[in-house]
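Structure first, sequence second, as always.
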């Protein structure tokens, strides 16, 4: 199993940037695909970005060109750099892990077994 703890959320004006972090502990971090998800009030949880154990990336269309997912295997930490933020990016952001090795890497929440507690991102206009 792997335990996940997110940090880095906050409030920012539209056009600003934030970097989220997700610290992993437990099973070897490199065994998993790691993803970022978000859930806005009253909406379903949606996939934002995923990175495979060999570093391949996949993004939701809504964040392509603005968000970058990365990881530091030595630190067992996942990151999400968010630039050009929009009010519609406001949500609780979660990191997640899956032992799936499918390609394309899944952006469906149903594919992920391990979840963090979330960190809130609020973007004001």
């Amino acid at each position: 199993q792997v335990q996940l703890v997110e940090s880095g959320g906050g409030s920012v004006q539209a056009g600003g940037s934030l970097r989220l972090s997700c610290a992993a502990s437990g099973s070897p971090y490199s065994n998993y695909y790691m993803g970022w998800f978000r859930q806005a009030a009253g909406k379903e949880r949606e996939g934002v970005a995923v990175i495979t154990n060999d570093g391949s990336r996949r993004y939701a269309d809504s964040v392509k060109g603005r968000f970058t997912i990365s990881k530091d295997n030595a630190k067992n930490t996942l990151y999400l750099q968010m630039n050009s933020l929009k009010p519609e990016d406001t949500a609780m952001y979660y990191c997640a892990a899956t032992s799936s090795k499918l390609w394309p890497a899944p952006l469906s929440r149903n594919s992920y077994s391990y979840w963090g507690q979330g960190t809130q991102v609020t973007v004001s206009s």
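Margin note: DSSP finds no helices and eleven strands in the chain.
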